[in-house]
Amino acid sequence: MWQMQRTVANFDAARFRSLGPGYLALSLAGEAGELANVVKKAWRVNPLIGQPDGYSVVTAEHRGLIADELADVVMLSLVLANHLGIDVEAEVGRKLETIDERVRQGYYGHEQA
Predict the structure, then answer these.
(1) Are 72 and 34 in contact (CB under 8 A)?
(2) Predicted model pTM
(3) DSSP state string for 71-102
(4) Could you give the domains of the chain?
(5) Which H/E stretch holds residue 60?
(6) Residue 75 and residue 68: Cα distance in Å, rounded?
(7) What is the pLDDT of residues 84-103, one digit of tens each?
(8) Are 31 and 39 in contact (CB under 8 A)?
């Protein structure tokens, strides 16, 4: 298990035990919406954010806001995973293999050399 997943489990032990999976999933969706809203506001400041090289134009202020919302998304994801007995590190590894296979098969519109 990923060390951060353990850290969140220890933190969670005293705080989120009364929340069911539905509540956690809705909370996660809300945090993802807050993340999207920060990015939308950053996009208004500089439309280049919508481009592949747009990472370089994100201001320090927006990076801080994005970091805060990403932390909420990751934390709630780990709380949900922990309560369901899901090893996030193993699942991310599995998913990366699936995506790699899809890329090699041209699933995303281009084949990998």
Answers:
(1) yes
(2) 0.83
(3) HHHHHHHHHHHHHHT--HHHHHHHHHHHHHHH
(4) 3-104 (1.10.287.1080)
(5) helix 60-84
(6) 11
(7) 999 999 999 999 999 999 99
(8) no
